[in-house]
Amino acid sequence: MTESILKNLGRLDIEKLIPHRPPFLFVDTIHEIVKDQSAVGEKTFPRSEAFYAGHFPQEPVTPGVIIVEAMAQVACCMAAASIGHIGDKVVYFLSIDEVKFRQKVLPGDTITMKTKKLQARGGIWKMSGEAWVGDKLCAEATFVAMAADAPK
User: Fold this and answer.
1) Which long-range contacts (CB under 8 A, 24 or more apart) does 65-68 make?
2) What is the pTM of this model?
């Protein structure tokens, strides 16, 4: 992955960038990564997701923490592709701030996650993310993450 723009990454490509695996991988596709700048990914939440049984049984809604995690995973894909030490480094979150939930994400919805780098210094990355369903902004947040050596 040496190009500065990566397009149409599928599950196997995503799993090369981040260590997350089902059932805790919340990115189906990465449409584009512009290294050191931005990434756009997508996730469809099928009605069969186990968390809908308890969140909330009468009116299932995708948990906000899952949406934030999905945005963070897209941001981590961008950071990992930018760092260029794929497999040698893991990106861990240090903080999540300025989280706002604006619309419900319902079973069957597909969210498009748009993330961008705000700042990077000394292995610490500050990034922002937005989650959209169609033309509706559903959630937004900023993340601070650190690239560390992967466990051996």
Assistant:
1) 66/26, 67/101, 67/105, 67/111, 67/131, 67/138, 67/139, 68/96, 68/99, 68/129, 68/139, 68/141
2) 0.93
